[in-house]
Amino acid sequence: MKLLTAALLLLFIAMCLASAEGVKCKCTRKGPKIRFSNVRKLEIKPRYPFCVEEMIIVTLWTRVRGEQQHCLNPKRQNTVRLLKWYRVWKEKGR
Fold this sequence. Notes:
The protein is an alpha+beta fold. It has helices at 2-21, 77-91; strands at residues 39-45, 55-62, 66-72. The protein has a single domain, classed as CATH 2.40.50.40. It has 2 helices and 3 strands; from the N terminus they run αβββα. It has a 3-stranded antiparallel sheet, with helices on one face. Keywords: Cytokine, Signal. One of its GO terms (cellular component) is extracellular space.
């Protein structure tokens, strides 16, 4: 009986760790400067306990490289401008 309880507890811990893996901080490295016209999608993820700052993930499209995802530094002036531009662009219905 103790062996069964220990196995179930171990299975439960493994499942908890596996589900926490999906919400880890993805932005360990910040991306390059970007052109606003290449932006396809912009995602703002909230700050998690294990991330220092919020995650801003941008999906770019270029003819040469196709679709690529980059993390942006939320404190950079270029990123702040991009967020303002993207909100205005979305409000116009594009």
